[in-house]
Amino acid sequence: MQGKEEIYNYSGSLNEVWRLLNDQERMLLRHNAFIQHFKKNQQIYCEGEEPKELMCLLKGKVKIYKEGIGGRSQIIRIIKPIQYFAYRAYFAREKYLTDAAAFEPSTVCLIPMKVVTEIMKHNYNVCKFFIRQLSLDLGIADERTVNLTQKHIRGRLAESLVFLIDSYGLEEDNTINIYLAREDLANLSNMTTSNAIRTLSTFVSEKIITLDGRKIKVIDEEKLRKISKLG
Amino acid sequence: MQGKEEIYNYSGSLNEVWRLLNDQERMLLRHNAFIQHFKKNQQIYCEGEEPKELMCLLKGKVKIYKEGIGGRSQIIRIIKPIQYFAYRAYFAREKYLTDAAAFEPSTVCLIPMKVVTEIMKHNYNVCKFFIRQLSLDLGIADERTVNLTQKHIRGRLAESLVFLIDSYGLEEDNTINIYLAREDLANLSNMTTSNAIRTLSTFVSEKIITLDGRKIKVIDEEKLRKISKLG
DNA sequence: TTACAGCCATGTTTTATAACACAAAAGTAG
DNA sequence: CTACTTTTGTGTTATAAAACATGGCTGTAA
After folding, report:
1. What is the CATH number of the domain that holds B157?
2. How far apart are CA A13 and CA A21, in angstroms?
3. Cα–Cα distance measured from residue B17 to residue B120, given in angstroms and rounded to the nearest whole number
4. Distance measured from the CA of protein residue A58 to the C1' of nucleotide D11, in angstroms
5. Minimal Cα–Cα distance from A171 to chain B, Å?
6. pLDDT digits over B49-82, tens only?
7. Which of A129, A148, A167 is where one domain is finished?
8. I need a labelling partner for B71 at 20 to 30 A (CA). Which of A172, B7, B99, B178 fits?
């Protein structure tokens, strides 16, 4: 499940942050970072848990979500490789407020937060990196609040699809590069599963997408973006 | 409207950050910070504008909000003295995504972001301060997303009232220490003005609060918190 | 093979909330 | 003081979305 050797295979890809480090700092990371693999749907961390490590998704797809009222869960954001996550709670000196789980088999590099902050003390660029990430995350969260509360179902679902396209991209045949259960799509869009299914169907009848099981092929991306934008 | 002398009257209260600085850094701030006064309902910054200064609210009350679909605006967060704001966009290297306006006559200290980042380069504690603030803000935003989307009207309004109590406090007679138009209360709670008014009325009939114009007196705070929590 | 669980899909009913309409009250300007 | 705008309050109607119910499909396990 975890190993320190494996880090060498990936260390080139931790890029963004890696570039900001000197040799000594890189060495420190190499000695303290470790890899974990997660199965499909496996939990990565839970709400209420004490945050200890910075995580970087190397392979796979991860959802950050919250269990809301009456079992309904809300996907807050999604992570793609190579992306850092799980740092907010530690920086805020709080427990985790969210849960994280793997959409599909995923590989995560974990770095003890103590090591990260040790480096930050002497490396302004790493500080700057996290400040930027947090600021971007906060901007996205603010946008999302308004979109989820004010857009109608069609707009919210369209937005989620656009979001998935922008995050994970399209294959050559315009299939969205992630296969989500209808329930996940619903949780991403703040609606019931029934309504996600229904609304997908109307998108099909409007020739905006086609469906083949969980494969979503985008026919009219422009129209999709328009629906997403206008609510 | 602005003055550099006035900064001396307040510099003691910029506390949190002030404490983290050495004499030279404090001098730098004193020479570059300036004060602006804002009238009731006056805009402080607008969406799309280029962020240039860090702001610190010295006196008054400020709302950060977004204009959503169809003129409906959503209050994202509220600021109380002494609190820093307006830093997210600069750190993210974006334009402002939100608007800010004064609820009531307010005094703001502005510090050029260039000066702030200059200090941050050599002062890890100031970096840490902003990382912490951003992390706290992000946590609040995540919570808020779920609360606004999943709670019912009563829960959302109760939550707003609790939020106002926790932010601005109660006077000796249990009056919430801010006088908001029903419309602002609605925008804070993601509902129409009519429904804010209606729901306030039912809270009165349930002896949870009493109303006298815009004065809201809290009778049963526990019950209010319970409604807020249970949605 | 059958039985069963987990997704999909779709039709019907119910309900929360927005939208609308209209007064009354309060604040503001001339 | 009067006219006028803005805010507040309430009743009614319309509607978006949830809740519920049911059935089909697919894969899996006995």
Report:
1. 1.10.10.10
2. 14
3. 11
4. 59
5. 30
6. 999 999 999 999 999 999 988 788 999 999 999 9
7. A148
8. B178
